Amino acid sequence: MTRCAVEGCDRRSVTRGWCHGHYLRWYRTGDVQADRPLSRRVHPETCSVEGCGRPTQAKALCGTHYKRSVKHGDAQPERRVRVATGEGGLSHGYWCVPVPPELRHLAGGEAWVAEHRLIMAKHLGRALYPDENVHHRNGARTDNRMENLELWSTRQPRGQRVDDKIVFAVEILARYRPETLDALTVHHAVMTKGSPEGI
Description:
Layout: H1 20-29, H2 63-72, E1 89-91, E2 94-98, E3 112-114, H3 115-124, E4 132-136, E5 149-153, H4 162-176, H5 178-193
Antiparallel strand pairs: 1-2, 2-3, 4-5
């Protein structure tokens, strides 16, 4: 039987030349700490990132901060940790939530949607069109504060003829700025036919 490489440890070596206990200590803290007995807990009970307070998983970090550390080489303590409340879950990096029946008209009748799209729909007071996207200004897909969201449209004219562009411009104004379209219509009537009756 191969013994643990830590001096004074008579346990069997299982991983990297260490016994299971010393391997776990190295895995959680980055150091086997040979001078400390294995029976003593050597990693903190809560995440070492200031203000986190979540239970540790590995190397003195909670699951979220540990995964960030492995993926990015940094626990990224400045990034907010999304706490699951049982109301929603991640899908392709976006936070999705159940839609209450009274709000389903804003989600095209869907019972489950991406939270950022629902928040934008509530802000606009209507369901989003299929050609509309909701962009996260800071790039964080789970930061769904309204001030971090902006409406984008992928709609564009099929051709580049002037007539096509004019029709497209009118359609865009009718959708997003109907009051501007109304003002332009009145202005055009005034310029081409004289002041309409009552104006």
